[in-house]
């Protein structure tokens, strides 16, 4: 039997308050943190810590180390808080520091383990939550100061599921106003920077989540996606993610003043960002547990029948009007090669009407927003928001009721065409963007620039939302000091197929965060 670990000797310090015009972390208390995690000398030979400081471990490694007694939940949380306080003042990724309550939760987690209680899959594992879902007792700002009175009466389903699994929330991450931009900036908290390069965007709307987890703040970051808000930040920050099938992960905010309109709900999804594909898979399992508050939740199995081998992958042909940067083309070829070497069979083929699919997404989401939300949003948002939103909606067709109903009906045909396509090609390999990552506020340059980004560069991301399909992103390469990821799309409720392909690429491409940390050191 493994001996009980002795309490480690640590060098503690008070964390100084940080402040920035671009968005300070609001601390609830200055937590004591440790300089370095050193395994106690009496730890059992079978209870060993992974290499490196605890904040660099994967979620899978962290959960196993805590479960085995190689490290305590308190030590783990302290390590992540120290990392957060070291790098976040520059990044502004975490905008609410929950260190005090995280340490309390960690102490409770260690007592739970000492009692021999049943432990969740993420017992003691530090994570972050995007500040646009309900977190009990806190305002759901969603990047807007006017939302200060939207106090969450309970945790949203995704937060509740993560906590039930034992995860410990160390902070809330930044998001643009109403989570409606692909760039993370707002008057309430300020601009979030990309840890790879401050001159490129961290993406959006889960930009704070992507920046935080890439930099080593938490092992898993929660985010959500209605037009690319998980996959775009994953690409920009060099991490992995999965946008699940709509209905896979339950969603609900009790603080909301009205229900979401139908198509907005059907095109959005909650999901995880992480440095490792295995962590994305683990988080997906935890997040997808049932919650009766979401009537659209589907009890679909996480693993389906394995396709007959070799699995055929469709490398999506790029439409002629999209100019592809050579670095992106090289990354796609590299990803295809990684898949081929892993036993997949890759062919470049044309996917079903990606242009029409994207236009359907744009028309539906824009017209719903204009009718249901636009007037209220414009009253309480910044000039930057007005510029970005104005650029987004100029590409949409203005629909009357009949045309809107026709667009929603056309959605069914698009989904059917893609589902039939997956019968021959279970995986589609596609770009996230066909251009280098843009600047941190580039959607405020002009309406034309916004159209160029969403239509000309990230078309393959937003199009997938209207289909409700799962899409994974995995980093492949670093070009000119900036990460490049690719997207892997699969059939409805076949997240497992997309993640299997992502894992095959990751096995050969490696985890890019290690390169980032060397740059940040």
Overall morphology = globular
Strand content: 5-15%
Mean pLDDT: 92
Tally the structural domains.
1
- Just name the CATH architecture: Alpha-Beta Complex
In DSSP terms (H or I, runs of 4 or more residues), the helix count works out at 17
Assembly category: single chain
CATH superfamily: Amidase signature (AS) domain
The CATH class label is Alpha Beta
Q: What is the share of helical residues?
A: 25-40%
InterPro entries: Amidase_CS, Amidase_dom, AS_sf, FAAH2
GO cellular component, one term: endomembrane system
Region (Disordered): 1-49
Protein name: Amidase
Plain-language structure description:
- With 521 residues, the protein is of the alpha/beta class.
- The chain is 40% helix and 13% strand.
- A 12-stranded mixed β-sheet has the order 2-4-6-5-7-9-8-13-14-12-10-11, with helices on both faces. Strands 1-3 form a two-stranded antiparallel ribbon.
- Helix 8 packs antiparallel against helix 16, helix 10 packs antiparallel against helix 13 and helix 10 crosses helix 15.
- The protein starts with 11 loop residues before the first strand and ends with a helix.
- The relative contact order is 0.12.
Quick structural overview:
InterPro entries: Amidase_CS (IPR020556), Amidase_dom (IPR023631), AS_sf (IPR036928), FAAH2 (IPR052739). Helices cover 40% and strands 13% of the residues.
């Amino acid at each position: 039997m493994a001996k009980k670990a002795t309490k480690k000797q640590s060098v503690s310090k008070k964390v100084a308050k940080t402040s920035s015009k671009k968005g300070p972390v609001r601390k609830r208390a200055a937590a004591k943190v440790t300089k370095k995690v050193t395994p106690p000398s009496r730890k059992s030979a079978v209870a060993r810590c992974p290499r490196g400081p605890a904040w660099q471990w994967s979620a899978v490694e962290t959960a196993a180390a805590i479960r085995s007694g190689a490290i305590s939940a308190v030590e783990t949380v302290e390590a992540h808080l120290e990392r957060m306080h070291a790098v976040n003042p520059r990044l502004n990724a975490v905008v609410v520091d929950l260190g005090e309550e995280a340490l309390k939760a960690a102490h409770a987690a260690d007592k739970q383990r000492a009692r021999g209680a049943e432990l969740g899959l993420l017992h003691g594992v530090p994570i972050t939550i995007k500040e646009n879902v309900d977190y009990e007792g806190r305002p759901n700002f969603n990047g807007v100061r006017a939302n200060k009175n939207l106090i969450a009466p309970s945790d949203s389903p995704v937060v509740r599921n993560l906590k039930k699994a034992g995860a410990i929330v160390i902070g809330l991450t930044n998001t643009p106003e109403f989570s409606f931009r692909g760039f993370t900036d707002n008057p309430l908290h300020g601009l979030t920077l990309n840890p790879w390069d401050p001159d490129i965007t961290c993406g959006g709307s889960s930009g704070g989540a992507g920046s935080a987890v890439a930099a080593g703040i938490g092992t898993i970051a929660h985010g959500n996606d209605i037009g690319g808000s998980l996959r775009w930040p994953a690409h920009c920050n060099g991490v992995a993610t999965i946008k699940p099938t709509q209905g896979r992960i339950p969603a609900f905010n009790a603080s909301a003043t009205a229900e979401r309109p139908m198509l907005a709900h059907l095109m959005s999804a909650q999901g995880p960002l992480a440095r490792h594909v295995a962590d994305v898979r683990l988080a997906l399992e935890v997040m997808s547990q049932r919650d009766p508050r979401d009537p659209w939740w589907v009890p679909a199995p996480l693993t389906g029948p394995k396709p007959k081998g070799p699995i055929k992958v469709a490398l999506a042909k790029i439409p002629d009007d999209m100019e592809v940067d050579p670095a992106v083309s090289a990354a796609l070829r590299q990803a295809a090669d990684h898949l081929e070497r892993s036993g997949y069979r890759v062919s470049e083929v044309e996917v079903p009407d990606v242009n029409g699919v994207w236009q359907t997404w744009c028309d539906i989401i824009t017209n719903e927003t204009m009718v249901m939300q636009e007037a209220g949003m414009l009253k309480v948002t910044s000039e930057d928001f007005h510029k970005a939103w104005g650029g987004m909606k100029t590409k949409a067709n203005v629909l009357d009721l009949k045309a809107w109903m026709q667009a929603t009906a056309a959605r069914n045909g698009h989904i059917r065409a893609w589902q039939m396509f997956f019968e021959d090609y279970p995986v589609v390999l596609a770009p996230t963007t066909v251009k280098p990552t843009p600047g941190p506020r580039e959607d405020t340059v002009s309406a034309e620039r916004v159209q160029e980004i969403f239509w000309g560069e990230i078309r393959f991301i937003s199009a997938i939302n209207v289909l409700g399909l799962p899409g994974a992103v995995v980093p492949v390469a670093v070009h000119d000091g900036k990460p490049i990821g690719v997207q892997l799309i699969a059939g409805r409720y076949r997240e497992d197929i997309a993640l299997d392909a992502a894992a095959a690429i990751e096995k050969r491409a490696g985890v890019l965060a290690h390169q980032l940390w060397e740059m940040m050191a």
